[in-house]
């Protein structure tokens, strides 16, 4: 074909020429096609050929633009060529040979022009125009047209087995469906046990037996997750699901996924090949109905309002068709012709105490297969009848379908703990409610999954009990409660109107305070010399609240007087240190030069390391080699050895790398230290001893300071020894990276992640103090 295509691209004439050559010699354009003459004819040849009386009644068709003739080789002179006899039909031409002047179909071209010199004959490729296609479609019956519409349909993975949606967005969903964004659709899904032929049923019901959804004779399930395809004939989204009772690791998540699919469906087919209807079918539909009404109706209504959808998503649940195929047993209701199968199904639901109230309708469609294949015509008619009914479920745009599925997936997702499962139900509440458990009483949260993303707090209908470990008491102002308001109060070091230092002084004298935003200071723990009463008996009410994982404590010790004092002392020490850093460096450098030996290079002249040439910064320490007297960095002068020729011995002292390597060489006598230099050397040794002693004292003071910090730490702060890295950026703490506590949450952060300042009244910090990035983003008072 490549050679033919190549010659066709060289500009061969695509005009149909007369094939009779009776008058025109085959050079005129063809105007007619005569079926009985089996040739294309120009105007002149057509008139001359049909002048005889016996040829005047030939069926002739005027050629229209885009006309494709029949193959000349297939029909032959009498229409009995081998290819025509095998196919039993006349084939449309695919090419026209410009040398042989004949039209050929694909098979005849391969047979007559595949080898020899004919292979090089130039050909013209026929392209059927729209008019020709319309003509072909007009000749098709309705069933053939439907089959042709489904020839290009393919399925795609919509949701995987872990409940993750596999389409990126609404546009990607519409693109994979291959439908118009404005097309109004309904959704049909199928459920049933694994191996019952759900995919096979969809292929024969909607796609005329084409394997749109994969089927397999293997033992393993061929459908994992949720697959979707678009039926252009009935304008529906067809969804295939993973079978029940199949081998899977995520059984709970798969079952929850089935209900999400059911919630967005307009029609559900429950496929069963059991000879008798099992109780599992009725239990599944009954539990699905209860879970739909309890969890999904509210969420679908919220999605309608949140997305501004014009079409309601939860008027009623989907309709259900129970497709029952038997081999050896009779169909439901065949023994009682007077009773409809739907009545028998409702009685079965009632006996099992299952009430499928969520479904808009339940229909039964059975078929008995004496000899394969299965007859799906009855199911197809039942499905089409239900899809035409728009009284309860109206069609909607594909974008609405995607938004509904996305909203349900975002709301009901996450792992389901096995120890919380109630296996007596197909769809227990644990599949759709929050998995958090109160640390004090052990009761579970009754809110829906992922409610924390919307800022909704945990909630439980049962009352909690007090636990000393969590101290889950909450104080409320008694005076405000009697006026109809519930205002929470906490014990703290000082009142909000006191300055930090005045508050510390009052705390030392009068103890902690309880302050109400409306009533002011209502209690001081040491207000009187004796006879101070407990606040619970006088000014506050106590309530016991649940302790949810990840939440802060309640009445933990908010007395932060000791930490305030340490913060103040640290601030003063840091300020003095920073202000005196420059002068201290200058004085230290001058003093060191005054007591240095004469052969040492002065500090003011040492700008970089004598070996590696690294420039010294303000905070860098300069080290003198005791042998040569030059200045080095710590890395280039870390070795030690005695230098008796300079008066340093017998103890080893710091030398540079060069002098350490040349330690076998002796200095000249002229370089030995004089008496004056010996005195200076003694002064230097004394200075180093004093410096080392002071350094040891400072290091020793750091140890009790850490103990003081732990003692002063508020109760809700995470202890220093448990903080290994920054709670936000995860940097590991070291000597150079200091730990800082957020005054709101008590976690440990580096300075970059906790440099914001805000007051934290709930923790007793009424003046701006250090808080982390996360707490600083929270609205309202901390």
UniProtKB/TrEMBL annotation:
Major localization class: endoplasmic reticulum
Q: Where in the cell is it found?
A: Endoplasmic reticulum; Golgi apparatus, Golgi stack; Lipid droplet; Mitochondrion
Key words, A-Z: Endoplasmic reticulum, Golgi apparatus, Lipid droplet, Metal-binding, Mitochondrion, Repeat, Zinc, Zinc-finger
SMART domains in UniProt = FYVE (SM00064)
Domain (FYVE-type) spans 603-664, 720-780
Q: Which GO terms describe its cellular component?
A: endoplasmic reticulum; Golgi stack; lipid droplet; mitochondrion
Superkingdom assignment = Eukaryota
State any single GO MF term. phosphatidylinositol-3-phosphate binding
Task: Tell me a GO biological process for this protein.
Answer: lipid droplet formation
Quaternary structure, per UniProt, is:
Interacts with RAB18 (in GTP-bound form). Interacts with BSCL2 in a RAB18-dependent manner. Interacts with ZW10.
Q: What is this protein called?
A: Zinc finger FYVE domain-containing protein 1
């Amino acid at each position: 074909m490549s050679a033919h295509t190549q010659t066709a691209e060289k500009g061969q004439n695509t005009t149909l020429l007369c094939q009779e050559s009776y008058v025109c010699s085959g050079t005129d354009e063809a105007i007619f096609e005569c079926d009985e003459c089996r040739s294309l004819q120009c105007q002149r040849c057509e008139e001359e050929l049909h002048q005889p009386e016996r040829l005047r009644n030939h069926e002739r068709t005027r050629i229209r633009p885009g006309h494709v003739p029949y193959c000349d080789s297939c029909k032959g002179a009498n229409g009995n060529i081998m290819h025509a006899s095998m196919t039993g039909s006349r084939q449309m031409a695919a090419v026209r040979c410009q040398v042989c002047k004949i039209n050929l179909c694909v098979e005849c071209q391969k047979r007559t022009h595949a080898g020899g010199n004919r292979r090089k004959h130039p050909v013209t490729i026929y392209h059927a125009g729209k008019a020709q296609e319309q003509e072909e479609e007009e000749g098709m019956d309705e069933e053939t047209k439907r089959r042709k519409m489904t020839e290009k349909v393919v399925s795609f993975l919509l949701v995987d087995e872990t409940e993750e949606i596999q389409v990126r967005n609404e546009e990607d969903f519409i693109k994979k469906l291959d439908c118009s964004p404005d097309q109004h659709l309904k959704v049909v899904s199928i459920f049933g046990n694994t191996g019952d032929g759900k995919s096979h049923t969809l292929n024969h019901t909607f796609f005329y037996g084409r394997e749109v959804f994969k089927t397999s004779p293997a033992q393993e399930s061929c459908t994992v997750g949720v697959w979707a395809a678009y039926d252009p004939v009935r304008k529906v989204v067809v969804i295939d699901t993973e079978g029940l009772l199949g081998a899977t690791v995520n059984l709970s998540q798969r079952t929850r996924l089935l209900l999400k699919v059911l919630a967005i469906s307009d029609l559900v087919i429950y496929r069963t090949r059991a000879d008798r209807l099992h109780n599992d079918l009725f239990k599944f539909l009954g539990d699905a109905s209860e879970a739909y009404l309890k969890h999904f109706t509210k969420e679908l209504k919220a999605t309608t309002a949140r997305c501004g959808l014009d079409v309601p998503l939860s008027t009623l649940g989907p309709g259900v068709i129970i497709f029952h195929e038997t081999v050896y047993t009779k169909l439901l209701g065949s023994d009682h012709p007077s009773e409809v199968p739907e009545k028998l199904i409702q009685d079965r639901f009632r006996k099992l105490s299952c009430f499928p109230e969520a479904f808009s309708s339940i229909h039964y469609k059975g078929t008995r297969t004496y000899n394969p294949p299965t007859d799906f015509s009855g199911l197809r008619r039942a499905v089409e009848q239900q899809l035409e009914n728009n009284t309860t479920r109206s069609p909607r745009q594909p974008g609405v379908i995607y938004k509904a599925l996305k909203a349900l997936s975002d709301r009901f997702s996450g792992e389901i703990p096995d120890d919380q499962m109630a296996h007596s139900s197909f769809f227990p509440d644990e599949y759709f409610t929050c998995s958090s458990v109160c640390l004090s009483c052990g009761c579970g949260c009754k809110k829906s999954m992922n409610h924390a993303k919307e800022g909704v707090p945990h909630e439980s209908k049962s009352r909690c009990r007090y636990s000393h470990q969590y101290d889950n008491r909450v104080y409320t102002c008694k005076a405000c409660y009697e006026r109809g308001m519930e205002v929470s109060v906490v014990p703290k070091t000082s009142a909000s109107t006191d300055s930090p230092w005045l508050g510390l002084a009052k705390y030392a004298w009068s103890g902690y305070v309880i302050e109400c935003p409306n009533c002011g200071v209502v209690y001081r723990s040491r207000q009187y010399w004796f006879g101070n009463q407990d606040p619970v008996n006088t000014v506050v009410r106590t309530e016991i609240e649940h302790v949810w994982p990840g939440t802060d404590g309640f009445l933990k010790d908010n007395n932060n007087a000791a930490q305030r004092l340490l913060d103040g002392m640290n601030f003063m020490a840091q300020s003095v240190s920073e202000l005196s850093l420059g002068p201290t460096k200058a004085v230290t450098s001058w003093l060191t030069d005054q007591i240095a030996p004469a052969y040492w290079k002065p500090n003011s002249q040492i700008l970089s390391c004598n070996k590696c040439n690294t420039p010294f910064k303000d905070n860098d320490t300069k080290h003198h080699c005791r042998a040569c007297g030059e200045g080095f960095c710590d890395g280039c002068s870390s070795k030690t050895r005695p230098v008796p020729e300079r008066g340093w011995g017998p103890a080893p002292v710091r030398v540079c790398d060069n002098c350490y390597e040349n330690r076998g060489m002796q200095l000249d006598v002229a370089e030995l230290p004089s008496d004056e230099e010996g005195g200076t050397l003694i002064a230097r040794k004394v200075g180093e001893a004093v410096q080392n002693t002071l350094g040891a004292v400072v290091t020793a003071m750091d140890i009790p300071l850490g103990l003081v910090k732990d003692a002063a730490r508020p109760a809700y702060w995470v202890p220093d020894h448990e903080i290994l890295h920054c709670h936000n950026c995860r940097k590991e703490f070291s000597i150079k990276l200091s730990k800082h506590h957020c005054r709101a949450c008590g976690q440990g952060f580096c300075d970059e992640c906790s440099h914001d300042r805000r007051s934290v009244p709930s923790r007793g910090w009424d003046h701006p103090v250090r808080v982390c990035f996360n707490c600083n983003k929270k609205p309202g008072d901390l």
